[in-house]
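Z., the sequence and structure:
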Amino acid sequence: MKSPLPVDGVNELRQTVAELKSAHQDLNWKTAFLEAQANSSIDGILVVDEHGKKILQNQRVAALLKIPRHIEEDPDDEKQLRWVTERTKNPGEFIDKVLYLNSHRNEISRDEMELKDGTVLDRYSSPVISKEGEYYGRIWTFRDITERKRAEEALRLLGSAVEQSKESILITDAQLNLPGPSIVFVNPAFTRMTGYSAEEVIGKTPRILQGPLTDKTVLKRLRQNLESGETFAGESINYRRDGEAFHLEWQIAPIRNASGTITHFVAIQRDITERKRLEAELFQSQKLETVGKLAGGIAHEFNTILTAIIGHGELLLNELPAGSPLARNATEIGNAASRAAALTRQLLAYGRKQFLQPEALDLNKVLAGMQGMFQLLMGSEVRTFFVPTPGLQAVIADAGQIEQVIMNLAINAREAMPRGGTITWETANVSFKPENRGRHPELEPGDYVMLAISDTGKGMSAEVKSRAFDPFFSTKKAGEGTGLGLSTCYGIVKQSGGHIGVDSEPGRGATFKIYLPQAESPPNTALQRPDLPDLPRGTETILLVEDDSALREMAAILLKRLGYTVLAAAGGVEALSLAQERGPGHIDLLFTDLVMPRMSGKELADRLRALHPHARMLFASAYAGNAIADQGEWNKSAARLQKPFTPSALAFKLREVLDEPGPAKPKSPPGV
């Protein structure tokens, strides 16, 4: 039997047991504390020993790495490692990282780990080493940075968009008291638009862009909107660094922080100077179009009156004996009516309602044929140069009208150089693509022939240039011109499917450029028309339809004097009634106004053909080919006579139509 421990030994043992128990409790407390602390962390925490065996893993690890509970609680750590590896976007890279750190125990590592579902984790690994340098294991921490990465990518894309944007972007602080908000950011587009670098404007107010033409009322409304925290959109005239004014369109909106407080203002700005110019050109074009329609309508009615005046004047003159004082009066009436007719033709040309006889023309030959006339008009003080382009393409246009345009421009150029100078005519083949139509947006993309006239005269101010093609606008003194010269050119060119524009500055002369569509066919050779003898006569039956009584009476008198049988009607219904009374085959020609109330000339012609299929047709109108086209496809090739016409013009046109070869027609019964 062993002897009992000494009392001192028992006490010492009891003390040792108590110390061990206290140390164990302290360790349990610290372990529980560390586990609680680890589980309360927003990061995933994993602690492994020196062999890589899991010692501690908080709940966040399983949540971040999507680890099922049965795998998390499995004592075999290899299962968890395989699970995580299979769900990483780059499994091989993940395993290489683990193996590398197992062999490089003293290294600290920080990188990003991406899962297949798009989750991105910030991964940090640090060794656990004692003071003596002994390696105990490693701590891994994982933090979900998916949203941060998305935000960073969004910011990167936004930054790239801002830097590459064609729109100017300017950001200011929210200071609204004087001196106003300060610029804190501008993108490269702002520099391209204004000429100011970012260094020159940062810290300054946007007032650096304002000037004399900046609308102060717009700025006042802007300030009121900003003070109330509202978005504001507007336009104003601002100034570039070099002092050039430009039109600016902008939208300014507040930027708020998470609590809703306005911290900045952002302005999206766009240079709309070119758009404003095009809008002004479009407005001018629409205004000219409206005036043209009005002028054409008035000229049409006036032409009808003039036709009656000219016709009755000629009939009266033929009735008076030679040397009669009344014959002189009748002659003056005719001369005055002819001058009025010329003015009306200008109105019709401006309104693009003139009859055209389009043909393929070589503008080089047209200009060459007018050189002698230029010399007479220009005089010795003005030198004229002609710069033709070899191989110039033909254009489809009315030769007489093109010559009228050329003469108008030549006379204008001469008047701009009262002390002499130089006029240069130039031709060229040009093409306009959709992306380079530039200053001529009204032109459709395609191939054109350009005709330009440049002078060294006094030039035009911006105001005069903007109104150059307005009808009745003139810089001449009262009584020295009608103001229809350039507007007539405008109408003729537009009617021919082209465009005319002018470049000019005070003291630098002017250049007018005409663009006409190129023709596919070669140019025609001008026909020489011989002088015509006395008025031809006839015995055919003519159905005359005209709603203007004076013109109808004049035409009826003339036709009867020329030997024709005349059936006169004021409109389509009356004409058809007369035709039915005469019976089939008794009308040789229908001479009708094209545009009439209730029944048009085209409709009348179609219905008359049913009764008299062999009857010829002759239309009269002051309107142009567009109006003819509106009456139907058949009338595009119909015989036409433009108002105002003279008795001789009507007489010759009638024989031209009646004598034209065609199908045999039945003879009228005797006595008709």
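The radius of gyration is 48 Å. Residues 273-319 form the longest helix (47 residues).

Let me know what you think.
H.
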